[in-house]
Amino acid sequence: MAERRAKLAEIDPVWARIMREAEEAVVDEPLLGGLIHYSVLHHPTLERALSYRVSLKLANAEMSEQIVREICDEAYGNEPDLAMAARADITATFERDPACLRFLQPLLFFKGFQAIQAHRIANWLWKQGRKDLSYFFQMRCSEVFGIDIHPAATIGRGIMIDHAHSIVIGETAVVGDNVSMLHSVTLGGTGKEEEDRHPKIGNGVLIGAGAKVLGNIRVGHCSRIAAGSVVLEEVPPCTTVAGVPARIVGKAGCDQPSVEMDQLLHGKA
What we know:
Order of helices and strands: HHHHHHHHHEEEEEEEEEEEEEEEH
CATH architecture of the largest domain: Orthogonal Bundle
Pathway: Amino-acid biosynthesis; L-cysteine biosynthesis; L-cysteine from L-serine: step 1/2
InterPro entries: Hexapep, Hexapep_transf_CS, LbH_SAT, Ser_AcTrfase_N, Ser_AcTrfase_N_sf, Ser_O-AcTrfase, Serine_acetyltransferase, Trimer_LpxA-like_sf
Distance between the termini: 57 Å
Radius of gyration: 19 Å
Oligomer: single chain
Family: Belongs to the transferase hexapeptide repeat family.
Protein name: Serine acetyltransferase
GO molecular function: serine O-acetyltransferase activity
CATH superfamily of the largest domain: serine acetyltransferase, domain 1
CATH class of the largest domain: Mainly Alpha
Strand order of the largest sheet: 3-6-9-12-14-15
Strand content: 15-25%
Helix content: 40-55%
Largest sheet: 6 strands, mixed
Number of helices: 10
């Protein structure tokens, strides 16, 4: 057993850690033993565990858990980047969210993480031309998690959505790598035009609670958007914007705002 664990840790350290934490959690709280065994310990890989978890959440009377799970398995089997992005999301959540004490928690309990993984599968379906099925995934994510992400939206790796209630991300939005956002963020359009109409969020950006970024505008790498702001114009890299409408109020304050999660204003530009 120890040798097998060591090999797993070399091949897939994220999954090895989740497995170890799951075993510890069963000892700590036996009443969760069934949930943890079915969700984690019964599965040979993170991919299979993700398929199980997503299918359990999204299945309903119209689409059985077995069918949803087969769709998820197909997606993970054909696109390895989906599960690699999930590993980056788990690591990001653990590193940035002080309420996350184990890698196990996002997989079992955090709806922001779970909704992003469901979206990744919806996005894969969209790219395969299976748009109606991708809309089903979007609908169920909205109903189950309170998060509405169009299946065509592009989401990078290492995403952390804290609390994750009332997130809205539009069809032509692009979210870069290592982005952090809090609840009630909207990445929306400004009208009924059908062309490219949603924001482009750079890498390492921190978006505060309740912020609205509207229109086909670019938010530069490693910038901060203060809570409650309404952003209608492009944001230069490494700056902080705040207000309604948002204006530049200072520098970003650090190299990686999305990692530091510092939302205080520390002086003017």
